[in-house]
Amino acid sequence: MNTSALVGRWLGYGDVAQIERWRPAFGAAWARETPLLLIAALAAVVGLTVWFYTRWQAPTPRSVRWTLAGLRSVALCCLVLMLADPILELTFTRHPQPVLWLALDSSESLSLVDDAAAREPSESVAANAGPRRGLSRSEQVQAFLRRNDAAWLRKLAERFRVRVFAVTGKELTATLTDDATTDDWLDDWTCTGQVTALGDALDELARRQGGDNLAGVVLISDFDQNAGASPLVTARRLSAPIFTIGVGPITAVDLAVDLLTPPTMKKAETSTLVVTLRQRELEQASVVVRVFATARPGATSEAARIPVGEKTVTLSAATQTVEFSHTPDHSGLFTFFAEVDPLPGETVTQNNRAERDVRIIDDFLRLLFVEYEPTWEWRFIKEVFHRDKLVGLRGFRTFLRSADPVVREQNDLFLHSLTLPRKEFFEVDVIFLGDMPATALNPRFCDMVKEFVDQFGGGLVVIAGPRFGPGQLAQTSLADLLPVVVDPAAKIRDQSEFRLQLTPLAAQYDFMRLGHSVDNPLKGWTALGKLPWYQPVLRVDPRATVLAEHPTALCADGRTKQPLIAIRPYGRGEVVYVGFNEMWRLRRLHGEEYYRQFWGQLIHRLGLSHALGDQKRFVVRTDKSHYRRGETALVTVEAYNADFEPLLESDVPEQRLSGTLLRPEPDDQGQREFSIAVPQLRAGLFEARLPLPVQGEYRLRVTDPVTAADSEISFAVADVSIELRNPVRNVALQEALAAETGGRSYDLSTADKFLDDFHPPRPRETMVETIPLWSNWFTFALITLLLWGEWSLRKWKHLT
């Protein structure tokens, strides 16, 4: 063993390769920065000692005096040097073990016990753990890590510096141990995570990476990613290969149910509910699909269970749909359920039922169409919504600037003024703004539209016309709402015809999906044909999503195509921009079908995303509709007076609203009903947090201080996890994650090969070690010996 290795072991490092240099120095700033001061201090103590022994000490032989002076001088110099903090700086290189992180998925899906027929061969690794039985996925992992025949964990700790993490997401990434030589830490690994967010977990690990010379990551999971960012994107930030070890079967007997319903239905009008069945290994099996509804608190129905329909289906494809028609007899909030009975061999049965909350209204949407003069678009939209079941004759109103004043006064369809009283204006649900000159849009109207979208969640559709164009809005407050930045000097472009071009994002919006084709939901747009003109804009707002664009024309930046249909959120609402008013051409080949589909689905999206009519004045909502036991519900109340102005402190007694919470079961004192207070956060906004200790349905009533009426909502608390809805391992993600980062993919039966496959080189590290020279036994012994020698000599010569 060479000198460098010996020094390294003395310093506590067993992997020192070479000492590059050593340098004595002083740690105290005064000695390091002013060495003359240190020399002066040493000279002073030496001089004082010599002066004392040569001038003031009793007559003794000269040799004795000089010996005593020398002993004391050396001792005092040592003390002065101790004040200067003498140190030795060693610079050396070492080759430590590479760092390996072992990440264990802690989501609830690891607690699943897979069916014996679907169980993967890897469960055999637990053979020495006891009698053969069905093990959960986490127990299979523990058995693999604890088995003695392969000692996989011990070998891992011998070759790497191992850190073990429990991961489910960014907030639930915890270090289990920095010492993997034992398996005691496995007892602290619990699988209770509510979601599997591997992308967020890897992002958090990358943030914690810091100065670790990370060689690789071993990730043990079933890879059932169901929340957060994509792990394929965040894994690159680790700058290390990820070796994936999969747990759970790659296939299983399973039948999952999804339910698609309209978010809002109209009483006495027929709606379609679509049940989607997804199956694995159940070809030709026969199942009974049942759909029913239950009334939530506040609904007008007294029936506990309202049957919708029941159909027997033979499973002939991996995915197939079943449609049910339903005509509601009552209004209110209802929960619709679709379910099938569990089939033999299913590991997971939680996905045999799906539910959706649906609001059934006995009301109508209120639309306001602002236009300068009658256009084809204005005429056809008016006719379509007059016959629409959610709008009707009572719901459509228009302000037509060119209309005869007498017609405006006598016909209920027309508004006599653009600036309605606040109470009437904010009862509107969707506003269409057509081709209007800036002179016709007064500031009060523009400001109320902005407040309507921002504060009340209203929908705004801006339709560009050929006469004035959207540039008229540039100098109004409405310009802030638009998905595009308009040019006040822009002119209509009608030099050549063109076909509208849909963007890849168009299919994500229901109002852009025309027709009934599942494979090509955008095919219906071919009915629009060629458009003769459009209104250009300067650029697209960065918060907007472009759904349709010009095939060739570009914006001012020379790269972005001119947007023709775009949407953006603004405050609580949404704004849609259409760069032409030629949508009526959709009627060309198919009559009203596509035209009604586009505008109908658009107003449903914009109008039904908030409370209707004057109900927008007092809205009680929770941050979620379903909670898990032990969580806290955030209750928010938006409260306005009769003129839709925010309630002030003077309008509300004690600056808080009163309400009642009905729990699903009594507390320890036998009470189910509790009075609550919702304090004011700011003008028009009240907030409270409610603990949810038990499962079941909670009902909350809050009193409106203006009308003294109660507004009621309900929410459910249950321990149903999304983690228990997928019985199989996501092999595609597991293999992609390994391939993307340069790692390899295994399961528990092949994980032993990892030790043979991965041999990273030891990293080279240059370290500087600072060794204090005064705080050790040698320095203490030297000073003690000097002082003892002086004392002994003085006693021998009888000096006082």
Automatic annotation (TrEMBL):
Name of the featured protein: Glutamine amidotransferase domain-containing protein
Keyword list, A-Z: Membrane, Transmembrane, Transmembrane helix
Species, as recorded: Schlesneria paludicola
InterPro entries in alphabetical order: Class_I_gatase-like (IPR029062), Ig-like_fold (IPR013783)
PANTHER family in UniProt: BLL2462 PROTEIN (PTHR37947:SF1)
Coiled coil: none
Transmembrane region(s): 36-54, 66-84
